[in-house]
Structures are given as C-alpha cells and as structure tokens.
Automatic annotation (TrEMBL):
Organism expressing this protein natively: Sinocyclocheilus anshuiensis
Domain of life: Eukaryota
Gene3D superfamilies: 5'-nuclease
Name of this protein: PIN domain-containing protein
C-alpha cells in the first residue's frame, strides 16, 4: 500500500516547488497470530494462549524486539568480549568460538 503526502512550497527565488513524500506499507507480511482477524490464517505461528507467565504483564502478550536494539546489543557484547588488543599481532579471543 502506498501513502503519499503532497504539498507545494515557495522557494527563496519566488518559484513554486511541489514536494511529494511517499510512504510504502507492506501488506504481504502477516502477524502469524491465531487470534488475528485481519491476516490470512494460512499458517499461524504464535499461539493464542502463551504458556510463559510474567510478573510484569498480567495479560497475554507478544514480545516484538526492535532489530536495531538487538543488533546494537549484540555488537556491544561482542566488543566487550573481544576487548581491546594491545598490539596488531595479538589475536582477539572470540566469545562465540
């Protein structure tokens, strides 16, 4: 689905400039929840009733991590595990190997 916002702006020289901002929303990605009424119920992945209970949240919920936050935390953990090598000849010890 395409949403666009169009407006006209006056330039410094007195001319008119048409600005179009387009925002593409993907409609081919489904949520995978069994309780969703809008998505196609082809192959639900997320269960209707979660089996893990939380003290922080008393109602059923899904946790959706932000990929930028996850990548930042993985990179930060990697840098902390590698450390700062003192010389170019010193090979860092990786936590993943």
């Amino acid at each position: 689905m395409l949403k666009s916002k169009t407006f006209v702006k006056k330039t410094r020289s007195g001319g008119v400039l048409k600005i179009v901002r387009e925002h593409y929303l993907r409609d081919d990605i489904w949520c995978g929840s069994e309780v969703c009424k809008e998505c196609k119920d082809e192959a639900p992945v997320l269960q209707e009733h979660a089996s893990i209970e939380s003290n922080l949240c008393s109602y059923p919920h899904y946790l959706i991590p932000d990929t930028n936050v996850v990548l930042h935390q993985v990179f930060k953990g990697f840098i902390l595990s590698v450390g700062n090598p003192k010389s170019a000849n010193q090979r860092p010890q990786f936590a993943f190997s």
